[in-house]
Design goal:
The complex is a heterodimer of chains A (79) and B (696). Chain A is mainly beta and 79 residues long. In chain A, 11% of the residues lie in helices and 34% in strands. Chain A has a five-stranded antiparallel β-sheet. The radius of gyration of chain A is 11 Å and the shape is globular. Chain B is of the alpha/beta class. In chain B, strands 2-3-4-1-5-6-8 form a seven-stranded mixed β-sheet, sandwiched between helices. A two-stranded antiparallel sheet of chain B has the order 7-9. The chains are: A mainly beta (79), B alpha/beta (696). The interface between A and B is large, with 33 and 44 residues. Chain B: It is found in: Cell inner membrane; Cell membrane.
């Protein structure tokens, strides 16, 4: 498992997903394409730092920071 | 069903314009009903395909996949798995949209596995150029083993193509797009051997979903093929990955996207609308606009409705032969119906705003903006939708809490929503405020308007406070799921908004109308019949007063005496001891009790009581009669203390049977509606008691 997860991204950054904790990630998110191999981009952060608005696999979706911390990303793919 | 009717199921992800397609195909030929036993809207419509063929189109709830996460989504699976259902489709129409084709196709590949003739609609084709998207339709048709209609429901392009494809549904392939069972060959082979006559994908759905399935012995499958929850979820994940692989490979050769063309207008809009200062300012500005429309703009049509109904009532009294039937009509039914019709402007305005906010994509931003704040009170950002719609009516509001994933957050939302000032409280507030608050201005604002606003704010804070307490009390362990799709901003389509407003308003009027009509008839009967004293009223009054009275005074005395000795009067007298400490007399008591079914009945009941009790045929409004009413000591019945006590009682009490019924349905137990009833009404009684005793 990577030490980096999607909640660590800065606004505008994107990275490749390498793993997800399937006990913590709702199926709905997986169905939207939140899967290993796909890219995830942080588009917007809500005023109080939570929730986070991502673009995953071309799906625009907002999730809570905690959920985002179970989406593991490849550190050297962060752009 | 005639042989020339084709049954069509319209399926698709939320936010792909599925409802617009449905509206374009069926126009006004729509019907909204309920699926048996659950409160999910069932929308069906008829579409004329050609001279001899019609299509019966059923608009299924939006779903991301065939893995059901909610009752709405369950409906889709249950219909598609049950060949014996009368609505089982001849052809499935999967609606997708150009910009999210990749994600939308997941559901499509699942439907294809069910071996139902399936055609693909790709919507919003008008955005392709702007977004730099190109599609090779013939190649895509080949890869997906289907026929495609590239349409724009917004511009009304390509609807005929859908009709044509529906007409020729028999030529559609029933073959699956990919072999999803390869994710675990051994497991699926065993499954295939055990049930050779069943479709493999169906079996898989039955194992993974909690759906009613008639044809199969559920237990048998479950005993032999169930695996641990995690293992199943892993397999589902594998299945999803497999499908996405197929979709990605397919789109690689059929779709071209020129990324440089994608405008950043959307993200600029997001930067403003979810800004930490402007975001909230804009949201509160919109809320103010909504309230302005409800209280100010809708008062014009409401006044018109009000005067029309009292004129109509007086007209029937004058022009129909006098008798029981005329009384029932002019004192019971017409004021009763008027009491409902008067809500239409407010309800319509509210649904108009909610519908526009949802269609434009703005509502998701509000959810995004509010989530962190709402979470402190045990609510979700998604609770904002029920809380706003609760200002119209708690029933649709509680139903809209359904898409809150976390059960605890959803339950708290359901429990506190009835505190929000719904439009049924408005007429009660309106008449009471005009009776007890003087028509003065304070710092340029109308004092009456300020009182109304105070009542709204108070209700909101009590709701939020209750949520905070419930959050501390309820010991429920739930995962904090929260997934909100953020659709692109769009200009709402007039047709969709108009149909939505029409449908919701109609449902409210017919739903509440039935109860109010029934109650006003019962009340009229109870008010115009009574004990022996009631029938001998004239004699008794004549004996009591030896001095001759003027004719008018005599009539008034008789009528007042009659009302007190009618069945309704006797009932009121019985409950008087309970309500006396709150400052209510028996007439108000009757109104309070009868409005237990629905708050708005309060005004109707007083209207009925005061018109039964009056002799004159002039159109003295109910308000005037109430203002003039005095008790035996000559004090006004509707004084300040009583008025405030009543306002507080109606703000908090659970006076709505329909809400209790919907809470029972949504929580699947009587426990929660009963807790709601006892807590809310108990709280209301105590608050009203304290208010009256300190103010009197």
């Amino acid at each position: 498992m990577s030490d980096y997860n999607a909640s660590m991204l800065k606004k505008g950054q994107s990275a490749q997903i390498i793993d997800i904790d399937i006990d913590e990630i709702p199926l709905k998110l997986i169905e939207m394409g939140c899967l290993p191999g796909n890219d995830i981009e942080l588009i917007q952060i809500a005023p109080m730092g939570d929730p986070l608005f991502f673009n995953v696999n071309d799906a625009k979706v907002a999730i809570r920071k905690k959920t985002a911390s179970f989406i593991f990303i490849q550190s050297d793919s962060i752009q | 069903m005639t042989p020339n009717t084709i049954k069509v199921a319209l399926i698709g992800n939320p936010n792909v314009g599925k409802t617009s397609v449905f509206n374009q195909l069926t126009g006004l030929n729509q019907q909204v009903g309920n699926y048996p036993g659950i409160t999910v809207d069932k929308k069906t419509g008829i579409c004329k395909i050609n001279q001899i063929t019609r299509a019966k189109i059923i608009d299924l709830p939006g779903t991301y996949s065939l893995n059901a996460n909610s009752i709405d989504e369950n409906v889709v699976i249950e219909l598609l798995l049950n060949k014996n259902d009368e609505d089982f489709p001849d052809v499935a129409v999967v609606v997708t949209e150009v910009e999210n084709l990749k994600r939308n196709l997941l559901l499509f590949t699942q439907i294809k596995d069910l071996e139902i003739p399936t055609l693909l609609v790709i919507n919003m084709s008008d955005r392709m150029k702007q977004k730099g998207i190109e599609l090779d339709i013939p190649l895509l048709e080949k890869a997906l083993k289907t026929k495609i209609a590239l349409i724009s429901s917004r511009k009304n392009i390509g609807i005929d193509k859908i009709k044509e494809l529906i007409l020729n549904y028999k030529s559609l392939s029933k073959e699956a797009c990919l072999n999803a069972s390869s994710i675990d060959e051994e497991y699926f082979n065993r499954l295939r051997k055990a049930f050779p006559n069943q479709l493999l994908y169906k079996l898989w759905l039955v194992i993974t979903q909690d759906v009613n399935f008639l044809n199969l012995e559920r237990n048998e499958i479950e005993n032999n093929f169930t695996r641990s929850h995690t293992e199943l979820k892993k397999l589902q994940q594998k299945e999803t990955i497999k499908r996405y692989q197929f979709i990605n490979d397919t789109l690689k050769v059929t779709q071209k996207i020129d990324k440089s063309k994608a405008t950043d207008f959307q993200s600029k809009l997001d930067n403003i609308l979810t800004h930490k200062v402007f975001g909230y300012l804009i949201f509160f500005g919109i809320l103010l606009l909504i309230f302005q429309s409800i209280f100010d703009w809708s008062s014009i049509p409401m006044d018109f409705i009000d005067t029309s109904f009292s004129k109509f009532s007086a007209y029937t009294k004058e022009n129909l032969p006098s008798g029981k039937f005329t009384d029932l009509l002019s004192d019971g039914i017409i004021p009763g119906i008027g009491g409902i019709v008067i809500f239409i402007p407010q309800i319509a305005f509210l649904f108009l705003f909610i519908s526009v906010l949802e269609e434009s994509g703005y509502m998701s931003r509000v959810v995004f903006l509010m989530d962190k704040i709402m979470r402190r009170f045990g609510l979700s950002g998604k609770s904002i939708v029920p809380l706003i719609s609760g200002t119209a009516c708690a029933i649709p509001a509680i139903m809209s809490a359904r898409n809150i994933e976390n059960w605890k957050e959803r339950l708290i939302t359901i429990l506190i929503t009835p505190f929000i000032t719904c439009s049924a409280r408005l007429p009660v507030y309106a008449i009471l405020i005009s009776l007890i608050i003087p028509e003065k201005r304070f710092l340029g604002f109308s004092l009456q308007g300020l009182t109304l606003m105070a009542l709204y704010l108070m209700a909101f804070f009590v709701a939020i406070g209750s949520a905070y307490i419930l959050n501390k009390l309820l010991k429920l362990k739930c995962k904090s799921y929260f997934v909100v799709e953020m659709p692109s901003y769009k200009v709402p389509m007039f047709k969709n908004v108009a149909l939505n407003v029409l449908e919701k308003t109609k449902a409210f009027v017919t739903g509440a109308g039935k109860i109010i009509l029934a109650i006003s008839i019962v009340l009229w009967f109870l008010g115009s019949h009574g004990s022996a004293n009631f029938d001998n009223a004239e004699k008794i009054i004549a004996e009591k007063h030896e001095k001759p009275l003027t004719e008018e005074m005599r009539q008034n005395k008789i009528n007042a005496y009659k009302l007190e000795n009618s069945y309704i009067g006797m009932m009121g007298k019985t409950i008087e001891p309970v309500i006396k400490p709150l400052g209510y007399d028996w007439k108000i008591g009757i109104a309070v009790v009868s409005s237990f079914a629905a708050r708005e009945v309060f005004v109707g009941t007083l209207a009925t009581i005061y018109s039964v009790g009056s002799q004159s045929e002039e159109e003295a409004t109910i308000k005037m009669k109430m203002a003039e009413d005095i008790d035996e000591n000559g004090n006004k019945i509707f004084n300040f203390a009583t008025g405030i006590s009543l306002l507080l009682f109606y703000a908090f009490a659970m006076q709505c049977v329909s809400t209790l019924a919907i809470v029972k349905k949504e929580t699947n137990s009587w426990k929660w509606p009963l807790i709601q009833l006892v807590f809310m009404s108990g709280f209301a009684y105590v608050v009203a008691l304290i208010a009256y005793q300190t103010l009197k």
